Design the sequence.
């Protein structure tokens, strides 16, 4: 699968739920390529902005879209890595602020 194909599939699945790709296509395609690299590396689409362990059960919370996306987009208009955003975020109706890491330290592989 290519990044363009992944873009098409995810856009079709996520937009009806109110999650849009960041309007910065360079950021989006860098992240999509990272997802595909992780798919080749681990066998699943783990978030490229977080360190995966390679153990599906341990990484379940960071498989894209990660479990933190919903509260991140609700509170900040963007997920942690900036792949998924709200329409208001893309339309610059809300400020673009730093999204803090929600993943608990005990889940991190270091």
Sequence:
């Amino acid at each position: 699968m290519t990044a363009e194909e992944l873009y098409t599939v995810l856009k079709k699945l996520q937009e009806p739920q109110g999650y849009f790709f960041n309007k910065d296509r360079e950021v989006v395609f860098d992240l999509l390529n990272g997802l595909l690299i992780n798919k080749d590396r681990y066998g699943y689409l783990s978030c490229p902005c977080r360190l995966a362990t390679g153990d599906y059960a341990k990484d379940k919370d960071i498989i894209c879209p990660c479990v933190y996306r919903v509260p991140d987009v609700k509170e900040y208009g963007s997920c942690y890595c900036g792949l998924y955003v709200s329409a208001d975020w893309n339309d610059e109706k809300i400020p673009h602020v730093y999204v803090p890491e929600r993943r608990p330290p005990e889940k991190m592989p270091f």
Observations:
- The radius of gyration is 14 Å.
